[in-house]
Amino acid sequence: MNIRIISLTEDKLTFLLEGVDTAFANALRRTMMSEVPIMAIEDIFYFDNTSLIPDEVLAHRIGLVPLTTDLEDYLLPEDCDCESELGCPKCRVILTLDVEAEDDTITVYSGEMESEDPNIVPASKNIPLAKLAPNQAIRFEAYAQLGKRKEHAKWSPVSMCVYQNVSMVPVTDNVSAEECVKQCGEQVAEIEEDYLKIINILKFESCKLCRDLISHEEIMGNLKEDEFFFTVESNGALPPEKIIRHAVKILKDKLATLSGKIDRNELSDEITDFGIPEFEEGTLYTVGSGEYDDEEEDREDFTGGDIEE
């Protein structure tokens, strides 16, 4: 398996992954999307909210604000021994907001939330949360904790995580191929012997010169089955390279667990008989139906049988 970085910025990483099949590439993508934990606000206690936005709508907005994350100093709630509903300093961070409009209408932004940990703050300070008219205020205390996207979308570390196959198209006109590479750049295509290696198909086809040289049918008919072009874009909670490293670690741990089960011949879980739950005898009531005189007539339980008292 070979990895080559194509480009890296503060919030976006593109790379080539070679020597694996589609199943592995997709497992890596899904791990980055759903298994890498980040910080997000889970609980909010309002002290004052006289804005026009209801508490639950405002809470939803605040919960979706990406927070910068420190995976070394904090634990997932299920891994912490505090067993507290609101967590402890090892598994949660407190953020507060205290804003009031005086004479003019103001906009409240995510950057106005104050955190007890300078490493856990809104990834963007310019996310609007609400507008306050004069004499309106918002005051709350919020508790952020680590979580995974498979539990809720607010814990998604990426705004985009996609891959596509690389295409190796044989060319006969090397001069035109070299001109194409010069026009688009080596991050989009490159020449390997008698082949034009198209790394980023989308950008390649957006160039008229390249589009006239090689048709879409030729590109799709020469896809490499073991090489993929990945694009990972962070939402600001973690740097993109850290998302990939952590995803690889999680994937390796899962594969090690699977390998251990195979070695121990634990290929299936034991199937036990299903138990029939026991219910206390009672009556199903309809809300608003009034009192029911159980002495005058028999009643039917939820199984359809009669209950005699």
Brief synopsis:
By secondary structure, this protein is α+β, with helices and mostly antiparallel strands.
Question: What are the main properties of this structure?
Answer:
4-stranded antiparallel sheet; single chain; flat; 7 helices; 309 residues; disordered C terminus; 6-stranded antiparallel sheet; RNA Polymerase Alpha Subunit, Chain A, domain 2; Gyrase A, domain 2
Strand adjacency order, main sheet:
1-2-12-9-11-10
Assign the CATH topology of the largest domain.
Gyrase A, domain 2
Strand element count: 14
User: What is the overall shape?
Assistant: flat
Instruction: Report the span from N to C terminus.
Output: 73 Å
CATH structural architecture of the largest domain? 2-Layer Sandwich
State the helix count.
7
**H/E element sequence:** EEHEHEEEEEEHEEHHHEHEE
State the assembly state of the protein chains: single chain
CATH 4th-level superfamily of the largest domain: RNA polymerase, RBP11-like subunit
Radius of gyration: 28 Å
Q: Per DSSP, what share of the residues sits in E-state strands of 2 or more residues?
A: 25-35%
**In the CATH hierarchy, what is the class of the largest domain?**
Alpha Beta
Helix content: 10-25%
Average pLDDT rating: 88
How many domains, as an integer? 2
